[in-house]
From TrEMBL:
Name of the protein this chain belongs to: IGSF5 protein
Organism: Psophia crepitans
PANTHER family given in the database record: IMMUNOGLOBULIN SUPERFAMILY MEMBER 5
Entry-linked Gene3D superfamilies: Immunoglobulins (2.60.40.10)
InterPro entries referenced in this protein's UniProt entry, alphabetically: Ig-like_dom, Ig-like_dom_sf, Ig-like_fold, Ig_I-set, Ig_sub
Residue ranges constituting the Ig-like domain according to the UniProt record: 6-108, 116-208
Cellular-component GO terms for this entry: bicellular tight junction; cell surface
SMART domains: IG (SM00409)
Length: 215
């Protein structure tokens, strides 16, 4: 179809493009692009901006120390692995592997998430019999806003017993405030959990509610 394109006789193409990734800010993100024999120039783009070029004859041309690459050659083609170091919220978006000759490209999406802080102001609370108490758990500086749940003694608390409000913080970050209403009948340890996809385990904050008989 395009007889004038160099290397077209090799049926040159992208065999495997990059796949979506979700990572915590500050960590590495890695994307692979495998091309068949006959490729000449491969370009990696982040949100439309070229960040790394790989030339068949001379290897990778790195212009920023945040974007580096590793190369692997196998029987079925050449794989370029783009490594984004110290990922930032602004790196979120489209990561594209493009080939100069056939102007073919393949893309994936990077989601960079921010693990903020989580705290309950008091570590212990003393509550008398028949008294209701509100326990406040605060999540600051997250992206996206975290899912908040509560637990007591290893079991989840019914969602109807707490209210969570989310608000926009600064620099694209989010805050959340969760208020649990409780009428204790015994001393118990309560745990507030905040979770986002990139976290291997939710962050948690605990409070010990000490129950006191009015007698």
């Amino acid at each position: 179809v395009f007889p004038f394109l160099p290397g077209f006789g090799f049926c040159y193409s992208i065999i495997n493009g990059p796949t979506n990734a979700t990572v915590l800010a500050g960590s590495e993100a890695r994307f692979n692009c495998t091309v068949s024999e006959g490729w000449v120039i491969l370009i990696w783009l982040s949100n439309g901006n070229p960040v790394l070029t790989v030339i068949n004859s001379q290897g990778a041309v790195e212009t920023s120390d945040r974007f580096t690459s590793q190369n692997y050659t196998s029987s079925n083609g050449f794989t370029s692995e783009l490594i984004i170091h110290n990922t930032q919220l602004s790196d979120s978006g489209k990561i594209e592997c493009s080939t100069q000759q056939s102007s073919e490209s393949s893309f994936a999406f990077l989601s960079v998430q921010v693990n903020g802080t989580l705290f309950i102001k008091n570590s212990t609370l003393t509550v008398k019999e028949n008294k209701t108490v509100e326990i406040v758990c605060e999540a600051l500086g997250w992206a996206p806003a975290p899912d908040i749940t509560w637990m007591t003694n290893d079991s989840f608390i019914d969602k109807l017993r707490y209210v969570t409000q989310q608000s926009q913080g600064s620099n694209g970050l989010h805050n959340a405030l969760s208020i649990l209403t409780l009428t204790p009948t015994d001393t118990e340890i309560l745990t507030c959990l905040a979770d986002i996809e990139a976290l291997p385990n939710p962050q948690n904050a605990t409070v010990t509610v000490i129950f006191v008989n009015s007698t």
